[in-house]
Amino acid sequence: MSLNTHSPSQEKVLVIEAESIVGDKIASCLRQEGYNVALVKNGVDGLKQIFDILPGLIILDITLPGLDGYDILDKKQAEPMLAKIPLFLLSTQGVPINMRRVPPGSVTEFIIELHVDPAEILSKVNRHFPHKGETVPAASGADAITKKKILWVEDDKLIGTILSKKFTSSGFELFHAKNGEEALDILKTVVPDAIVLDLLLPGMSGFDILQKIRADEHLKNTPVIILSNLSKPSDIEKAKILGARKFLIKAASSLDQIVAEVKEICK
């Protein structure tokens, strides 16, 4: 596995391709365009990289040693935080795609080619990232060194790991608590810019935490985003009554959407 890094603003693309010549050509073409490319050549490492680097786009061949492309699709779609990562499914050398094994909504684009044209793949990737190449002004002064502080309260180990990586790579200073007691201990010494809160937690519930936050003079104005799989109107209404600014459903929210909402609420 090789990873090319230049700038934190680069879009990350994960290429999972067993054929060395094909994979190297695709990766080289994307890197020349300025993409941050990770290339792996088997399914087991490919699945691990999806979790580890949280790419903005995956290019996945269906024919792989270890786990094949269909296995990776199944495992990716089983995790709500990963399911919404866009994916191009690649079939080369005349290998047909078995559509019965492709989970609904799991593929952004199908690329079926007898001989892969890296330039064509690059064109598709560029269309997927329409704002690539735009210049983002560099932060200066206090803005360059001040990170927004986020308290993220979530007991699910996998989701916690995935979203923690996303928050950190997006430039936040992250404090992660696995339950209400840990969250309240952190809040004794830290006043975050925003709190992202699950509702179903061991011991103290998210609703209980919300009530304690609103009763604290130092914390009552801290914006809170609920991120939960509870989706009953009564749960949403209760959270809003207790002061939550936003209510996001885990299964319906992409990683980028969650980060965008947190950035917006921190302004």
TrEMBL record:
Q: Give the top-rank taxon of the lineage listed in the UniProt record for this protein.
A: Bacteria
**Is the keyword Phosphoprotein assigned to this protein?**
yes
Q: GO terms for biological process?
A: phosphorelay signal transduction system
Q: Which UniProt keywords apply?
A: Phosphoprotein, Two-component regulatory system
Whether Phosphoprotein counts among this entry's keywords is yes
The protein's matches in InterPro entries, at most eight in alphabetical order, are given as: Bact_response_regulator, CheY-like_superfamily, Sig_transdc_resp-reg_receiver
Every Response regulatory domain range = 12-129, 149-265
Q: Which residues carry this modification: 4-aspartylphosphate?
A: 61, 198
First and last residue of the signal peptide:
none
Q: Would you tell me the protein name for this molecule?
A: Response regulatory domain-containing protein
* Gene source species: Candidatus Taylorbacteria bacterium RIFCSPLOWO2_01_FULL_44_26
